[in-house]
Known about the structure:
Elements: E1 7-8, H1 9-13, E2 51-52, E3 57-65, E4 88-95
Antiparallel strand pairs: 1-2, 3-4
Amino acid sequence: MENAKMTDSFREIHPDIITEPGYTWSTVQKFSSEGWNWTIPEPQDRIDFIFYRSSKLKPTNSFIYAGLEPLTPIPNHKNNDYPSDHYAVVTDFDILNVN
C-alpha cells in the first residue's frame, strides 16, 4: 500500500502503536478450541484497514467499532450485538477544497 501511496487512516489519527494498537481481530475467540485444551492463543492483530489516497481527504477521527455493548468471549458470544470476528474500522473524513 505504501508503494501505491495509500495512507492508513487509523494510523494517521493514532500514530503510536503502543498506546493504540488498533487490533481488529479476533474479537471473541482468545483461544483455539477445547480439543487443544484451550492452550493455543488466538492472534490479536490489526488486519482491517481504511486506506485513502487524495489530497482532498483529511481524516478527522478513526476508531475501532464492535457494537454498543461490550463483547462477551466464546462460548457466550451468541448474544453479542456485533456478529463478527473482526472489529470494524470507522474513519470520518473532511473533504477539502471541493471546487
